[in-house]
Amino acid sequence: MSTRPRTPAPSTPAPGKLPLPELVEMKRRGDKITMITAYDAPGALLADEAGIELILVGDSAAMVMLGHESTIPVTVDDMIFLTRSVTRAARRPLVIADMPFGSYEVSDEQAVSNAIRMLKEGGADMVKLEGAGRMVSRVEAIAESNIGVIGHIGLTPQSAIKLGGFRAQGRTAKAALRLLDEALALEAAGASAIVLEAVPAQVATLISEALEIPTIGIGAGAGTDGQVLVWHDLLGLYAGAAPRFVKRYADIAGEIGGALDQYVNDVRTGAFPEEQHTYAIPAEELAELEAGLAERRGR
Ligand code: KIV
Fold first, then answer.
1. Beta pairing partners, 227
2. How many whole angstroms from 265 Cα to the centroid of ligand 1?
3. For residues 71 and 112, is the Cβ–Cβ distance under 8 A?
4. Ligand 1: which atom is nearest the Cα of residue 71?
5. Quick check: is 197 catalytic?
6. Cβ atoms within 10 A of the Cβ of 257, count?
7. Is 298 left (phi over 0), alpha (psi -120 to 50) or beta?
8. Rounded CA gap, 211 and 184, in Å?
9. Which of 59, 19, 52, 20 lies closest to 36 in space, CA to CA?
10. What's the rounded Cα separation, in Å, for the pair 121 and 181?
11. Greatest pairwise CA separation for the chain in angstroms
12. What is the per-residue pLDDT across 238-280, written as a single tens digit (0 to 9) for each?
């Protein structure tokens, strides 16, 4: 019999990885869950070092990384490429790959086969998809395939046009009840958590209290079981205006802009590179080189 360690099955967490059931335990204990988006290895490493529990490779990558106007154009292959670079670096956090628009709407089979690609090719630990209604069946099919899945309701950017733009959801009693029913249906279908985006704080709190699984809020107030922000928004890596719910913890775009201005100026004025940035040739080698060149010129 071979003594080589067996490759863990997809449902077996890698050593040091946060176990998925720990999220429900955190909710029971009242410990807040932290989640952030990341799209590359350096970001994933920093998020891991900061002790963040969940890294979302969001389809927001379409806009903040790939320069699209919306999340619609990003493909499964794009998401796998980005997820792969995150999973190479993240050790403890669970890495969630967002299912992009068009990768799960057609059928349960399509949803499961693309979720499998996210795990096998991207190395993701689990997936997230937007919506309820018919999407509840997609969540159920993925969960029944032993893949962890997170729901996402409220403002769902992939359907922003249908929703009439990027606007808060659940602001009437009827709409709030619909959100609650969606959340309960996703939980019953096997979702491991639900992202609530741009939902009034009171509504998000009521939904969170009604569920056993954790809610992760973005623009949903302080009553959810965890919070998520987009990397570029949190760090100020975006020149444009951020949504109202964003708290900017840094001005990295300003820092980078200042550094680049200084670099351009230093190169143009000759202030860079200095001696300390330069390789030297030993004096005797230089003398020999110069003598050799003089001899060539004399020939
Ligand atoms: O794609 C994304 O970044 C997201 C978050 C806003 C939750 O879905």
1. 34, 217
2. 38
3. no
4. 1
5. yes
6. 12
7. alpha
8. 7
9. 52
10. 34
11. 95
12. 777 888 899 999 999 999 999 999 999 999 999 999 999 999 9
Return the closest-CA partner of residue 170 out of 228, 217, 227, 225: 217
208 DSSP assignment: H
Residue-wise pLDDT tens digits, 80-121: 999 999 999 999 999 999 999 999 999 999 999 999 999 999
Q: Which atom of ligand 1 is nearest to the CA of 98?
A: 1
Residue recorded with tokens 């009553």: 223
The answer to whether residue 1 scores a pLDDT higher than 80 is no
Q: Alpha helices, DSSP H only, in the chain?
A: 22-29, 41-49, 61-64, 76-89, 108-120, 135-144, 160-163, 173-189, 201-210, 231-235, 252-269, 283-298
Size of the chain in residues: 299
Q: Cβ(37) to ligand 1 under 6 A? A: yes
Give dist(CA 50, CA 46) in Å, integer: 6
| Positive or negative: CA dihedral 196, 198, 199, 205 | positive
Specify burial of residue 287 (Cβ count, 10 A radius: 0-12, 13-18, 19+): exposed
Place of tokens 């919306």: 70
Measured CA to CA, the distance from residue 244 to residue 252 in angstroms comes to: 19
Percentage of the chain beyond pLDDT 90 is: 89
